[in-house]
Amino acid sequence: MEAAFAPAVAAGIPWAAVLGNHDQESTLTREEVMKYIVAMNHSISFLNPPSTTAPMDGYGNYNLEVQGVASSKLENKSILNLYFLDSGDYSTVPFIPGFDWIKPSQQVWFQTTSSLLQ
């Protein structure tokens, strides 16, 4: 895992990550993988939104706002919002084989968050 993020860490560049379908295929659980990523140098990733009170499926669901450049008319204004959603690993539904998907709890969080940012 270190090698995947090494260039950004070595350069001191802030970086973010999200989990995909194969990230738990090691000795760590999905939660442990995301906690490890969150603790890495220069990571601006989150385990899950800090303001969420309702349970949410997955780990690494969060958003990052990109603000305008200092001393510009867009300073301190949100110009871009990036959403990170854990897509899960494998389906747990017996008649749906293959990979998992974004869950309703994540959709609700996305819709609520995006409406608050408008």
From TrEMBL:
This is Calcineurin-like phosphoesterase domain-containing protein. GO terms for molecular function: hydrolase activity, acting on ester bonds. It comes from the Eukaryota. GO terms for cellular component: cytoplasm. SUPFAM superfamilies: Metallo-dependent phosphatases (SSF56300).
